[in-house]
Amino acid sequence: MKNTLIVGATPNEDRYANKAAKRLVDAGHTIIPFGIKKGIVCGKKIINLWENFQDIHTVTLYVGPGRQKEYIKKIIEIKPERVIFNPGTENPDFKLQLEKAGIAYEESCTLVLLSLNKY
């Protein structure tokens, strides 16, 4: 299964980042919740300070382009297999940098990908 870094994780169960975390865990994936909110998601503490994340297959974004700026270089440095731009997180500049780094990306919805067994 895929190690997934959730950027924009939140303990708020009404938010899509939280719903995606639950669905990822239900599908057998390992989540690493990262965000500015404090709390627990699926039994895991939300990490509030960027770490040297290892063995990340997928980064799924739940923060808009304005908040992505400080993480673009850091995400590229961890060399994920792919980055998912969930609705509202699309960022042409970030996508260009991912292309240059040879990192795949897709504009999609993590929840939809999971429901179609295309995650």
Describe the structure.
The protein is α/β, with parallel strands linked by helices. The protein has one domain: Rossmann fold (3-Layer(aba) Sandwich), CATH 3.40.50. The protein has four helices and seven strands. The protein has helices at 16-26, 65-78, 92-101, 110-115, and strands at residues 3-7, 30-34, 40-41, 44-45, 58-61, 82-85, 104-107. Strands 2-1-5-6-7 form a five-stranded parallel beta sheet, with helices on both faces. β6, α3 (92-101) and β7 (104-107) form a beta-alpha-beta unit. α2 packs parallel to α3. The N and C termini lie close together (10 Å). The model has no long low-confidence stretch (mean pLDDT 97).
In angstroms, what separates the terminal alpha carbons?
Answer: 10 Å
**CATH architectural group:** 3-Layer(aba) Sandwich
Alpha carbon gyration radius: 13 Å
The CATH superfamily is: NAD(P)-binding Rossmann-like Domain
Order of helices and strands: EHEEEEHEHEH
Structural class: alpha/beta
Q: DSSP strand (E) fraction? A: 15-25%
CATH class: Alpha Beta
Helix count equals: 4
Placed side by side, the strands forming the largest sheet appear as 2-1-5-6-7
| CATH fold name | Rossmann fold
Number of strands: 7
